[in-house]
Fold this sequence. Notes:
The protein has helices at residues 13-24, 46-56, 85-92, 109-112, 126-135, 154-161, 199-206; strands at 3-6, 29-32, 37-40, 66-67, 97-102, 117-121, 138-139, 141-142, 167-170, 181-184, 190-193. With 207 residues, the protein is of the alpha/beta class. The strands form 2 sheets. The protein has a 6-stranded mixed beta sheet with strand order 7-4-6-5-10-11, with helices on one face. Strands 1-9-2-3-8 form a 5-stranded mixed beta sheet, sandwiched between helices. α1 crosses α5 (126-135). 38% of the residues are buried.
Amino acid sequence: MSNVLPFPIDFSPDTLREAVDCLGQGGIVALATESFYALAAGVTYPEAIERIARMKGGRAKKPILVLIGEKNQLGHLISTIPPLAEPLMDRFWPGPLTLIFPALSHLPSRLTQKTGTIGIRLPKVPNLLSLLRETGPVTGTSANRSGAPPARTAQEVQEVFGKTIDLILDSGLTPGGRPSTVMSVLGECHIIRRGSIPAESIDQALA
């Protein structure tokens, strides 16, 4: 079985340090987001990101989105911030909005799948943000096999992935519901995946 540690809002500093160390050594950590559990690996560890891709399975070659702990971490990932991104970040970050930016060329290919772009979200989960501010950007792909429902509990993550995950941070039952809204801010803004933030709210932010 994987190592499982409790990770409530008032988490232990020892738990935070263990998670930081695990990710800093190229490990994979399962953690709770606003909706489901996600599989996290540091973006500077392509081998760990490849492990995640193999764990999820499936033949789809979709880019893997990234979670950040604060906006100044964008500089590690993107070449520029398009003007239309600013009002969306101001209105919806932290929160369940994934924005598609122009990616830096040196990033692991699994993150971009040769599109030249990368999806990034600043999540609205206090303990997760504390972790991300220590680790820097990590992957945020849902904790599930390709085609299966995402996990909402640490136990579900354990049942699906077992020892293939190095550490599971147990934050209890996640809310579930719709995933993050995914939106491109390249050129004209357009929604790629409808999610928990409705199009009407996005239109209002851009007006």
